[in-house]
Amino acid sequence: MSVSFIRRFATSPKKVLTTAAVAAATTGMVLAAAPAQAATSQASSAQAVAHRMIPDAAQFSAFSKIVEHESGWNPSATNSASGAYGLVQALPGSKMSAAGSDWKTNPATQIKWGLDYMNSRYGSPAAAWNFWQAHNWY
């Protein structure tokens, strides 16, 4: 179904989108938002990087649970109240520069810093997750 066909029946952009969604649902097509796909792809890519860096299944699982709660695996996540940044919500985010100058944009750098932080402060990601469960922060 072409957009020109839909435009014949709907004159405003809002009507075009609504008409396209109804037409897609009727024909069994799926309309997917690019930003949602990008976020999902970005998260799965960051998870794959973390899995390579943390081969132990239990430690990866604990690390993953923390990151899921802290940022939803979004390397650009920013806490508007505190300013914490990144996958592991470093506060301030610039602390992650110790792991690399690309800390703002590179999930691998953020994962390295977060893993080092969890190991040095708690002994392991699993111990950090235990603390997180008790306090809702780490």
- Compressed to H and E, one letter per element, the order equals HHHHHH
Radius of gyration: 20 Å
| Helix/sheet category | mainly alpha
Low-confidence runs: 1-34
Major beta-sheet overview = none
Shape: globular
Could you report the average pLDDT, rounded to the nearest whole number? 81
* Relative helix content: 55-70%
Structural overview:
It is a single chain. This protein is mainly alpha-helical and 138 residues long. Helices cover 61% and strands 0% of the residues. Helix 4 crosses helix 6 and helix 5 crosses helix 6. The N terminus is likely disordered.
What's the short version?
With 138 residues, this protein is mainly α. It has 6 helices and no strands.
Task: Outline the fold blueprint.
Blueprint: H1 3-9, H2 13-27, H3 34-53, H4 57-71, H5 107-122, H6 125-135
Entry keywords:
0% strand; 138 residues; disordered N terminus; 61% helix; mainly alpha; single chain
